């Protein structure tokens, strides 16, 4: 059942799309972590989440109406979360109201409360308001390798939607800035993403 969207819900032309990590709580209280590209309004007071069903994040949002959105400079964490290759969940602490989980090593977090869910479209449109926030540490700064790694991870999630030749060509181009400006963390994660993409494409051609 959909709840009607707010009349001033943020949309792509009006907001900024951020690459973030979103935590929600499963029915048993376990933390679920998912990379997402939410759209935030200029005031950072409203957020549009766009999960694709079926989705544990969407199930948790429907049930609890709460999530925590994180910004981070840990591109390797974003990339591994995108391809489902996290060996363990990063450390978390409860939100002040205990309705969510904060990634301990994130740069900044914003607690979200669901205002409306519109599942008449795909992805589902989940409008949230920011009900709390905090800064945990400084953002380390911009780096070409980190950006390239995130772009490669996004390509990994588009294997079923984009021509495989285009994906492989773009990944090959992204390797150069990772090699030139990345550290061990970025290079290792990029190799994992690249292998994931190549293996998925190879399996699809069988």
From TrEMBL:
Annotated ranges, domain DUF447: 19-135, 143-191
Domain of life: Bacteria
UniProt name for this protein: DUF447 family protein
Organism of provenance: Posidoniimonas corsicana
InterPro entries in the cross-refs: DUF447_C, DUF447_N, Split_barrel_FMN-bd
